[in-house]
Amino acid sequence: YKRSNCKPIPAPMLLCRGIEYQSMRLPNLLGHETVQEVLEQASTWIPLVQKQCHPDTRKFLCSLFAPVCIDDLDEIIQPCHSLCEEVKDRCAPVMSAFGFPWPDMLDCSRFPKDNDLCIPLASSDHILPVTREAPKVCDACKNKNEDDNDIVENLCKNDF
């Protein structure tokens, strides 16, 4: 049994650059034991993230390649089953179109059902989008007189 430990997320790891945490746990959820191994394997997934098949693809993959590491917690925080399923539903067809099946190592049944100790789905694309608020109209535009000039006319066309 090799006790997992925290390592800084390496700068060259483009897949997880700029995520909300700085330390990752090794070995990770995919069995990678060295930072070098993680770097090599994670880089192959960048094209899938760039396809933007799901807004949480990067979050899901980083939770596997670079799981968040909290010093006081020995347990690895896994992605929630629902996060995996949502990403798989939208990204597996994209991968398939390029001749790649959804890999067994990303089998969603291995991840916990949604609870406090897993990484949940962040996006809310199942919720109807909020309609944009109508632009505010300044008082001068509401009370236009017949003799207003072009400046006020152009000003009133702008969104404040």
TrEMBL record:
Keyword RNA-binding among UniProt keywords: no
Record localization: Secreted
GO cellular component terms given for this protein: extracellular space
UniProt GO molecular function: Wnt-protein binding
Every FZ domain range: 1-121
Lineage summary: Eukaryota, Metazoa, Chordata, Craniata, Vertebrata
Name under which the protein is recorded: SFRP2 protein
Any one Gene Ontology BP term: non-canonical Wnt signaling pathway
Gene3D superfamilies attached to this UniProt entry: Frizzled cysteine-rich domain (1.10.2000.10)
Disulfide cysteine pairs (residue numbers): C16-C62, C53-C91, C84-C108
InterPro entries: Frizzled/SFRP, Frizzled_dom, Frizzled_dom_sf
Keyword Methyltransferase: no
Family in the record: Belongs to the secreted frizzled-related protein (sFRP) family.
Pfam families documented for this protein: Fz
Annotated keywords: Developmental protein, Differentiation, Disulfide bond, Secreted, Signal, Wnt signaling pathway
Chief subcellular location: secreted
